TrEMBL record:
Name of the protein described by the UniProt record: Heterokaryon incompatibility domain-containing protein
Source organism phylogeny: Eukaryota, Fungi, Dikarya, Ascomycota, Pezizomycotina
Pfam families: HET, Het-6_barrel
Superkingdom of origin organism: Eukaryota
Domain Heterokaryon incompatibility: 54-258
Segments forming a coiled coil: none
C-alpha cells in the first residue's frame, strides 16, 4: 500500500508514537450522507489496553488496477487513498454519528519502518480488542444484481444491527430467522418469474447467492435447494458466488490473522453485509454434505469455475484455523506458514510477518529457555527474513521438515542457499496436502541426527547418499484432467522394461515392480472418507505392507467418459444420476490421491532400480539421499564439484540429539553454543527437494549395506 504524503504532511499527521507502550492511532469518521464528499476524519492516539470502543477494518488496498486513487481530508489535510479503501469508508460512514475505526494504511505511518514493525507486532491485539471486524470485500460490479428490484416488496434491511451505523442503504443478513422476509421476497419473485427479463449470461445474482448461503448455513443440503437445481436460476447464482469469491480480499495474506482473531467479523459486499458465521456454516454444510450425500459428481455445472467447491475450500481454510484458535490449540509455525503460503502480499516479507500473530510459541530449548522465533523487522532484507525463518523452523521442529515442499523456483534462481524456503514462491496446487502427510513416513527410522549452519550458506547434517537418478519422466502437470494425466502415467509406466507387457518382475525394494509402480503414483497412501457419529472424517493412511490388488489404479486407468458420474437435465431441473451411473468411490479416491501425491512432480528411476517421484526440477545425475532428521528422502544435486571454504565462519547448532557433534574437521561444538569453522567442505550439494522413493520410506535402507552415514553439506 502507498499513501501519497509529502514529508511535512507526514510529520503533521504522524507525530512519533511511544513504541515502548501499546499505543495505536484510530481514525474518527465524521458523519455525512453517503454521497457527501470528501470524506472527513481525524486521527487520535489511544492506549490499546484502555482504548475507547472501535472497529477494525479488514480490506484489500486495491480491488482492481483501473480505479484512480481518491483524496480524503484527514486532520484537515489531503490524504490520497485507494479507491477500494475510499469505498469502504464511504459505506461504513454513519449519517449522524462519529464512527471510530482502525485502518492500517491510515493509522500506521507507512514511511517509518520502526513504527510499522512495532504496530505489526501488536496487530493481533488490535483486531482482538476491536468491538467488530468489518471485512470489506469490495463494491458491487457492473453486472451484479444486489436485489434492488425487490425494494418496495418487503423490508430487506435488518435495521440497526451489526455494522450499519444507521446507514439505511445497507441490507443486513443475520444468518437466522430475521432473514426470512428477505428469503420469501426473493423466492416468491423468482417463482413468479419477475426476474425473467433480466440479462442471464453475465448477470451475477449476488442477492441470490446470499440467499443460498443462508439456506446452507441453516442446514439445508445443497441438493435440496431448488434454485440450484433449476438451470434458469442456478447459473446466475453461481456467477454471484464467483463474483463474491473473486474479490482480491480472499487472496491477501494479512486478512487471515484479521479474521481468525476477530470476535465478531462481518462481511460487506457493496450494500450487503452478513456475519462471517453465516459463510462458515454454509461451507461446513456443503463440505459435510459432499461426503454424506455423495455429491461430488452432482451439479457438475456448479463445479465449473470452482463455485461452491472453491467457496468451501477458501472459507474452511480460514475457519478451521479460527476454530483451533478459539479453542486455544497451539499453532505450529511451519503448519501456519504452509497453510497460507499461496496468499499474496505486496511486501514479500509479509508472507512471514502477517501470520506471526497466530503463533503463540516457538517452543522451548532443552534447557527450558524459550526458542528464538521470528519478529517483524522491516529493516531486514527479504532474503535474510526467509533465512532466519528457515533456521527458526528447523529449531522449532527439531527436524528437516522445513525443507520439505517447494523451496525456490529452481537451482540458481535465487541468491539464497537452496535449503532456504522462498515463501513468496507459489507451491503446486495440492502441495499443502502432500507435505501434510510426511508424518506417515520415517525414512531415517527414528534417527534425528543433528543440524548445524555454517555462516550464512552451509547447512550440515549426517545422511547417506543412496543412488543416482538415471531416468526422469515428464512432469504430471497440475489440473490437467484425467485423460491427459493418464497419458503421462502411461509414459512413465513404459519407462520400466516389461511392465507394460504384463511381465512379472521383482522390485529392488521388495514385492513386484508393478505394485511398486502404482503405489509410487499415490505415495503408498489411501484416502478414506467416512462418517463417525455426527462428524465426517477424511484422512490419508499408509497402504498395508502385504501385497494387495491394484483395483483402484486399474479402474482409473481403463475409465472412459461414459462410465463417469454425471447429472441429467430433465424439464429444466438438474437430477441426480442413477446408481448405475455413479463412479466408484475407489476410482475417485485414486484420482484425488494421484493429484495430491504426484501433481506437479516428476517420475524418476535410479541406476540401482529404485523408482519414485520428485520435484519438477529433478534431473539425470541427481542423488537420492536419506538425511537424518527427515522423514522423507531428498533429491540433491552436486555443486559442480566445487568446495566451500569456511574462513572462520560462525557455526550454529540448530538442534542435536547428542551432547556434541563433529561439525567440520576438528571442530567440536555443543548445542546452543557458537563456534567457528575453518574447514574446506568438499562435495557440497544443492537441495532440489523432497522425494517419495518406494522401498526407502520406512527405514529399509538402514538394513542394507548401502547405509553409510557421512556429513552432507548443502549450499
Amino acid at each position: 500500500m502507498s499513501l501519497r504524503l509529502n514529508p511535512r504532511t507526514s510529520q503533521y499527521l504522524y507525530p512519533q508514537l511511544d513504541l515502548g507502550a501499546r499505543t495505536i492511532r484510530l481514525i474518527e469518521l465524521f458523519p455525512g450522507a453517503f454521497s457527501e464528499l470528501p470524506i472527513r476524519c481525524r486521527l487520535i492516539e489511544q492506549d490499546l489496553s484502555y482504548s475507547l470502543p472501535y472497529k477494525a477494518l479488514s480490506y484489500s488496498w486495491k480491488s482492481d488496477g483501473a480505479s484512480p486513487d481518491v483524496d480524503i481530508l484527514c486532520n484537515s489535510k489531503h490524504l490520497c487513498i485507494s479507491a477500494n479503501l475510499h469505498a469502504a469508508l464511504q459505506r461504513l460512514r454513519a449519517s449522524q454519528d462519529i464512527v471510530r475505526v482502525w485502518v492500517d494504511a491510515i493509522c500506521i505511518n507507512q514511511q517509518n519502518d520502526s513504527e510499522r514493525a512495532n504496530q505489526v507486532g501488536i496487530m493481533r491485539q488490535i483486531y482482538q480488542n476491536s468491538s467488530e471486524v468489518l471485512i470489506w470485500l469490495g463494491q458491487s460490479g457492473r453486472y451484479d444484481d444486489m436485489g434492488d428490484w425487490m425494494q418496495g416488496k418487503t423490508r430487506v434491511d435488518g435495521g440497526g444491527a451489526h455494522g450499519t451505523h444507521g446507514n439505511p442503504g445497507i441490507v443486513q443478513w443475520f444468518g437466522d430467522q430475521r432473514d426470512v422476509p428477505k428469503l420469501k421476497s426473493y423466492f416468491s419473485s423468482a417463482l413468479e418469474q419477475e426476474i425473467g427479463s433480466r440479462p442471464e449470461e453475465r448477470t451475477c445474482d449476488i442477492f441470490g447467492a446470499f440467499c443460498v448461503l443462508h439456506l446452507l448455513a441453516s442446514g439445508i443440503p445443497v441438493n435440496k435447494i431448488w434454485h440450484l437445481r433449476h438451470v434458469r436460476y442456478s447459473a446466475r447464482i453461481v456467477n454471484g458466488l464467483n463474483a463474491i469469491m473473486g474479490k482480491a480480499w480472499w487472496r491477501r495474506i494479512w486478512v487471515v490473522q484479521e479474521t481468525i482473531v476477530a470476535k465478531n467479523p462481518v462481511l460487506y459486499y457493496g450494500n450487503l453485509c452478513a456475519p462471517w458465521r453465516m459463510f462458515a456454516l454454509a461451507a461446513v454444510e456443503y463440505d459435510t454434505g459432499r461426503v454424506r450425500d455423495k455429491l461430488d459428481g452432482i451439479f457438475s455445472h456448479l463445479n465449473s469455475g470452482q463455485s461452491l467447491a472453491h467457496f468451501t475450500r477458501v472459507i474452511m481454510e480460514v475457519e478451521s484455523t479460527r476454530r483451533s484458535w478459539e479453542k486455544l490449540e497451539p499453532m505450529a509455525p511451519l503448519t501456519v506458514l504452509r497453510k497460507f503460503r499461496t496468499r499474496l502480499a505486496t511486501d514479500p516479507r509479509d508472507k512471514v510477518f502477517a501470520v506471526l500473530g497466530l503463533i503463540r510459541s516457538w517452543g522451548k530449548e532443552k534447557s527450558g529457555r524459550a526458542m528464538k522465533g521470528v519478529a517483524p523487522d522491516y529493516t531486514v532484507p527479504t532474503s535474510q527474513v526467509f533465512f532466519q525463518t528457515t533456521e527458526a523452523l528447523i529449531r522449532n521442529t527439531r527436524s528437516l521438515a522445513a525443507l520439505v515442499g517447494a523451496l525456490q523456483g529452481g537451482i540458481g534462481q535465487s541468491l539464497m542457499p537452496s535449503w532456504v524456503t522462498d515463501w513468496n514462491y507459489p507451491p503446486s496446487v495440492n502441495e499443502h496436502v502432500r507435505v501434510g502427510n510426511i508424518q506417515l513416513y520415517d525414512a531415517a527410522k527414528y534417527l534425528s541426527g543433528s543440524v548445524t549452519v555454517h555462516g550464512q550458506s552451509i547447512l550440515e547434517t549426517p545422511g547417506s547418499l543412496i543412488d543416482r537418478v538415471d531416468y526422469v519422466g515428464r512432469v504430471l502437470e497440475d489440473g490437467q484432467g484425467r485423460n491427459r494425466a493418464k497419458f503421462t502415467i502411461v509414459e512413465w509406466q513404459k519407462s520400466l522394461p516389461g511392465l507394460s507387457r504384463g511381465i512379472t518382475r521383482e522390485y529392488i525394494g521388495g514385492g513386484s515392480l508393478y505394485a511398486a509402480f502404482w503405489r509410487t503414483l499415490c505415495s503408498d497412501l489411501e484416502f478414506a472418507q467416512y462418517a463417525d457419529g455426527a462428524a465426517y472424517i477424511r484422512e490419508f493412511r499408509r497402504l498395508p505392507e502385504q501385497e494387495i490388488k491394484d483395483e483402484s489404479y486399474a479402474r482409473w486407468l481403463i475409465d472412459d467418459e461414459q462410465s463417469r458420474r454425471r447429472t441429467s437435465l430433465v424439464g429444466g431441473i438438474w437430477v441426480e444420476p442413477t446408481s448405475g451411473e455413479i463412479e466408484t468411490e475407489s476410482k475417485k479416491a485414486f484420482q484425488y490421491l494421484l493429484e495430491c501425491a504426484s501433481g506437479g512432480r516428476r517420475f524418476f528411476r535410479t541406476s540401482k532400480g529404485y523408482i519414485g517421484t520428485g520435484p519438477a526440477d529433478t534431473n539425470l545425475g541427481d542423488s537420492v539421499a536419506v538425511l537424518m532428521g527427515s522423514r522423507v528422502p531428498f533429491i540433491l544435486r552436486a555443486d559442480d564439484g566445487r568446495s566451500h571454504k569456511c574462513s572462520g565462519q560462525p557455526v550454529r547448532v540448530l538442534f542435536s540429539e547428542r551432547s556434541a557433534y563433529q561439525a567440520g574437521k576438528g571442530a567440536r561444538i555443543d548445542e546452543d553454543e557458537a563456534r567457528y569453522c575453518h574447514a574446506l567442505h568438499q562435495r557440497c550439494h544443492h537441495v532440489v527437494g523432497d522425494a517419495y522413493v518406494h522401498g526407502l520410506m520406512t527405514g529399509e535402507i538402514k538394513r542394507t549395506n548401502e547405509w553409510k552415514v557421512e556429513p552432507i553439506y548443502m549450499v
